[in-house]
C-alpha cells in the first residue's frame, strides 16, 4: 500500500467520524438509533485506522503520510504529517475507541429516558477525531486548534449530567486547569515562532533557539502538557472530572486523552528543542516519581469512590511514564544513545499498556455502576457471585495495573525500572555521585509505588467484589449487557497477549524508535543502529518467555481443574465459622474500604492529616446507646496548602485593584487612555 493510498484511507476514516457525528444528530428523536449510529461509525473509523497504523508501522519504514489542504488563513497551513510517532499514538487512540464504542452500545441505554443521546454521540465522534487530527498536525497553530477542540469537546462530555451540582463544580475546575495549561503551551509556541520564524514543524531550525529560551520553552511545555497529563501538583481536575463523567468518556480520557500530553512532550522536545541540559531530565524524573507516589497514596487513602480511585491511579501511571521520559532526557543529554533508545521503548510500551488496562478498569467501573447504580465501595461487595464474568475480566485489569506477570503492566513497568537501574550503573562508572543518589531514590520510590499499587487494587477488588453485599442494590446486581462484556473481554485479552507476547508491540515501537532517535539534533545524527542492539528486541528471548508464560497459565488452569474435580469427589463436612457467639455473619462484620486503608492513612498522616468524628445518640444508660455515627476525613494537601491560598490571594488582589482603578471618575479614565497611547507610540518608534 503506497503513501497516497494510506492518506486516502486516513481521510476516509476521519470522514466516518464526521458522518457518525452528523448521523447521531439526524436521529434526534430516537436515542436508541442515535446511540447505534454514532457507535457504529466510530467503530468503523477506528477499526480502519487501527489497520492503517499497524500497516504503516510494520511495512512503511520511515515514509510519512502527507496530506495538504490549501487555505488562505495566515500562518495556518492545513498540513498533516503522519510519521511513525504519530502513527503509534493514532493506533492507541483507535484501539481504545474500538473497545469503548462496543461498550457504549449497552452502557448509554441507562441515559435514554432522561438525556439527549444524539448530542452525546455527536460530541463523542468529534472528540475521537480531534485527537486523531491533533497527533497528525504538522503546524504549531493547527496543533493548538485541535488541542483546544479536544479540550472543549471533553469538557462538554464531562458535564453531560450538568443538572447535578457536583458535575458543575468538576466542570469548572476542569476548564480552568485546561485553559491554564493551554496558556502555557501557547506561550511556548509563540517563543518558538519568535526565534525560528516558522510555525511548521519541518521548517523550524533548531540552531536558532538559544539555550536560555529553550529552558523557558521546556518549563512552559512541561506545565502545559503536564496539566493535561495530571501530574502533581497540577492534577486536581482528574479526581473531580472522572467520577462525574460517563464511564465510557472516563475510559477515553484516561486511556488516550491524557496520553496526548505524552505525545506533545516527545514531539516538541525531540523535534523542536535543541539538546537540553541534564536538569531537564532530572526535573521530569522527579516530577514523575512524585506524581506516581502521591497519586497512588491518595488513591488508597482518601476515597471510597471507585472512579475517583481509578482517577488517582491514572496520576500514578502518568508519573511512571514521565519518569521514563526523564530517563530519556538524561540519556540524551549524557550522550548515552543505548539508554535513550531503551527508555523510549519502555515509555511508549507503558503508554500503550496503560491505555488498554486503564480503559478496561474504567469500563469495569461503568459496568458496576450500570448494574448496581452506585460508585461507593462501602455499598458494594459480593459482586463476584452476582456478575462473575464481568468480575473476572475486571480482575484481569487489576492484575495488569498491579504489574503481575504474565499481564502487560509487568513488562513495561519492569523495563522502566530497568532503565533507572541501568542509569545508576552508567553514572556510577562516570563517578557522578549526585546523579547516582537521585536515581537510587527514584528506583526506591518506584519500587514502593509498585507495592502500593498492589495494595490499592486488593482494596478495590476485595471490597467491591468479594465478601458479602453491603446494600440491597449490591445484592440484586446482575451481569451487564453482552456488548459491555465483549468490550471488557477484548481489553482483558489484550492485557494478556501484550504481556505474553510483548515482542509485537516492541517491534512497532522499534519503527518509532529508529525514526525518532535518528533525528538530526544540532546538525549531528544519532546512530540508527542503536535500537537493534537492545536485548528486549531479541525475538528468541521474547518467544521463550512467552512460551514459559503460556505453560504457567496452562499448568495453573489444570491445577485448578484437578482441585475442583477432587473437591467434588471428596465428602467434606461443613461447619460455620467461629463468630464470637453470633449465630449468623452479616455484611457489617467485614472490612470496609475506609477501614482497609486506615493503616496507610496512619503511616502517611503528615500528608493526609486524618481526622475522626464520633457522634453518639445516648439511650437509657451511658453504655446503652441508641445510635453511633463514626466518620473519618482526610485533607486534600495540594488544594488546601497550594490552590486555596493562591486563589484567595488572587481574589484579594483583584478586589483591591478594582477599587483602585475603577474610581468612577471620567478624568481618571481619560488619563488611562492617554498613558496607553503614549506607551504605544513609544513602542512603535523604538521598533520601527
Topology record:
Layout lengths: L2 H24 L4 H29 L5 E5 L8 E5 L1 H24 L9 H18 L5 H19 L6 H32 L14 H19 L8 H7 L2 H11 L1 H13 L6 H24 L4 H29 L2 H36 L10 H4 L1 H14 L6 H22 L3 H33 L6 H4 L6 H19 L1 H16 L2 E2 L2 E2 L13 H31 L23 H4 L1 H6 L1 H4 L2 E7 L9 E7 L3 H25 L4 H22 L1
Antiparallel strand pairs: 1-2, 3-4, 5-6
Helix pairs in contact: 1-2, 1-4, 2-3, 2-4, 3-9, 3-13, 3-19, 4-5, 5-6, 5-9, 6-7, 6-8, 7-10, 8-9, 8-12, 9-13, 11-12, 11-17, 12-13, 12-16, 12-17, 13-15, 13-16, 13-19, 13-20, 15-17, 15-19, 16-17, 16-19, 19-20
Task: Describe the structure in brief.
Belongs to the CPA3 antiporters (TC 2.A.63) subunit A family. With 688 residues, this protein is mainly alpha-helical.
Helix content: over 70%
> Which segments are poorly predicted (pLDDT under 50) over 5 or more consecutive residues?
519-543
For the largest beta sheet, what order do the strands appear in spatially?
1-2
Gyration radius, in Å:
27 Å
The proportion of strand residues reads: under 5%
The overall average pLDDT, rounded, is 84
Number of discrete helical segments: 26
Q: Judging from the principal axes of the Cα atoms, what is the shape? A: globular
Distance between the termini: 54 Å
By DSSP, the count of extended strands is: 6
Q: Give the biggest sheet.
A: 2 strands, antiparallel
Structural class: mainly alpha
Amino acid at each position: 500500500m503506497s503513501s497516497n493510498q494510506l492518506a486516502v484511507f486516513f481521510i476516509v476514516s476521519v470522514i466516518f467520524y464526521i458522518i457518525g457525528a452528523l448521523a447521531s444528530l439526524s436521529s434526534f428523536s430516537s436515542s436508541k438509533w442515535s446511540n447505534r449510529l454514532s457507535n457504529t461509525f466510530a467503530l468503523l473509523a477506528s477499526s480502519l485506522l487501527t489497520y492503517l497504523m499497524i500497516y504503516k508501522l510494520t511495512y512503511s519504514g520511515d515514509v510519512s503520510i502527507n496530506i495538504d489542504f490549501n487555505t488562505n488563513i495566515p500562518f495556518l497551513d492545513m498540513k498533516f504529517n503522519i510519521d511513525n510517532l504519530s502513527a503509534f499514538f493514532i493506533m492507541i487512540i483507535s484501539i481504545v475507541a474500538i473497545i469503548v464504542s462496543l461498550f457504549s452500545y449497552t452502557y448509554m441505554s441507562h441515559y435514554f429516558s432522561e438525556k439527549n443521546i444524539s448530542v452525546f454521540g455527536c460530541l463523542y465522534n468529534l472528540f475521537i477525531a480531534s485527537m486523531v487530527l491533533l497527533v497528525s498536525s504538522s503546524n504549531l497553530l493547527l496543533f493548538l486548534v485541535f488541542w483546544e477542540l479536544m479540550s472543549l469537546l471533553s469538557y462538554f462530555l464531562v458535564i453531560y449530567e450538568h443538572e447535578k451540582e457536583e458535575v458543575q463544580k468538576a466542570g469548572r475546575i476542569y476548564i480552568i486547569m485546561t485553559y491554564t495549561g493551554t496558556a502555557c503551551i501557547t506561550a511556548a509556541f509563540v517563543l518558538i515562532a519568535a526565534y525560528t520564524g516558522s510555525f511548521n514543524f519541518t521548517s523550524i531550525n533548531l540552531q536558532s533557539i538559544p539555550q536560555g529560551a529553550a529552558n523557558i520553552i521546556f518549563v512552559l511545555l512541561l506545565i502545559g502538557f503536564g496539566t493535561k497529563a495530571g501530574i502533581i501538583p497540577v492534577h486536581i481536575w482528574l479526581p473531580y472530572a472522572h467520577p462525574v463523567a460517563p464511564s465510557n468518556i472516563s475510559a477515553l480520557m484516561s486511556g488516550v486523552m491524557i496520553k496526548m500530553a505524552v505525545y506533545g512532550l516527545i514531539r516538541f522536545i525531540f523535534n523542536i528543542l535543541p539538546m537540553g541540559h541534564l536538569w531537564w531530565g532530572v526535573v521530569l524524573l522527579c516530577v514523575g516519581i512524585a506524581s506516581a507516589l502521591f497519586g497512588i497514596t491518595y488513591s488508597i487513602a482518601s476515597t471510597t469512590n471507585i472512579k475517583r480511585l481509578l482517577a488517582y491511579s491514572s496520576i500514578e501511571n502518568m508519573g511512571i511514564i514521565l519518569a521514563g521520559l526523564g530517563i530519556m532526557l538524561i540519556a540524551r543529554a549524557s550522550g548515552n544513545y543505548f539508554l535513550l533508545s531503551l527508555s523510549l521503548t519502555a515509555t511508549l510500551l507503558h503508554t500503550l499498556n496503560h491505555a488498554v488496562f486503564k480503559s478496561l478498569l474504567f469500563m469495569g467501573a461503568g459496568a458496576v455502576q450500570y448494574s448496581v447504580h452506585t460508585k461507593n465501595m462501602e455499598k458494594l461487595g459480593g459482586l463476584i457471585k452476582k456478575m462473575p464474568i464481568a468480575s473476572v475480566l475486571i480482575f484481569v485489569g487489576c492484575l495488569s495495573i498491579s504489574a503481575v506477570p504474565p499481564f502487560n503492566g509487568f513488562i513495561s513497568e519492569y523495563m522502566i525500572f530497568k532503565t533507572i537501574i541501568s542509569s545508576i550503573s552508567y553514572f556510577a562508572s562516570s563517578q557522578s555521585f549526585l546523579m547516582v543518589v537521585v536515581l537510587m531514590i527514584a528506583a526506591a520510590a518506584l519500587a514502593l509505588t509498585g507495592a502500593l499499587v498492589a495494595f490499592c487494587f486488593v482494596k478495590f477488588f476485595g471490597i467491591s467484589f468479594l465478601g458479602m453485599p453491603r446494600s440491597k442494590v449490591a445484592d440484586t446486581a446482575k451481569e451487564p449487557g453482552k456488548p459491555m462484556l465483549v468490550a471488557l473481554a477484548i481489553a482483558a485479552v489484550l492485557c494478556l497477549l501484550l504481556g505474553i507476547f510483548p515482542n509485537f508491540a516492541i517491534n512497532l515501537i522499534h519503527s518509532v524508535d529508529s525514526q525518532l532517535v535518528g533525528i538530526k539534533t544540532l546538525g549531528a545524527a544519532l546512530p540508527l543502529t542503536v535500537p537493534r542492539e537492545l536485548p528486549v528486541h531479541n525475538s528468541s528471548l521474547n518467544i521463550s518467555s512467552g512460551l514459559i508464560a503460556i505453560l504457567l497459565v496452562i499448568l495453573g488452569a489444570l491445577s485448578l481443574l484437578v482441585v475442583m474435580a477432587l473437591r467434588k469427589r471428596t465428602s467434606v463436612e461443613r461447619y460455620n465459622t467461629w463468630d464470637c457467639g453470633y449465630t449468623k455473619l452479616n455484611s457489617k462484620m467485614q472490612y470496609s474500604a475506609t477501614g482497609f486503608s486506615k493503616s496507610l492513612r496512619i503511616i502517611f498522616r503528615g500528608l493526609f492529616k486524618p481526622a475522626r468524628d464520633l457522634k453518639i445518640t445516648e439511650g437509657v444508660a451511658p453504655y446503652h446507646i441508641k445510635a453511633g455515627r463514626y466518620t473519618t476525613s482526610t485533607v486534600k494537601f495540594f488544594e488546601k496548602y497550594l490552590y486555596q491560598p493562591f486563589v484567595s490571594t488572587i481574589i484579594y488582589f483583584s478586589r483591591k485593584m478594582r477599587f483602585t482603578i475603577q474610581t468612577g471618575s471620567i478624568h481618571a479614565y481619560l488619563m488611562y487612555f492617554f498613558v496607553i497611547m503614549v506607551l504605544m507610540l513609544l513602542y512603535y518608534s523604538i521598533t520601527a
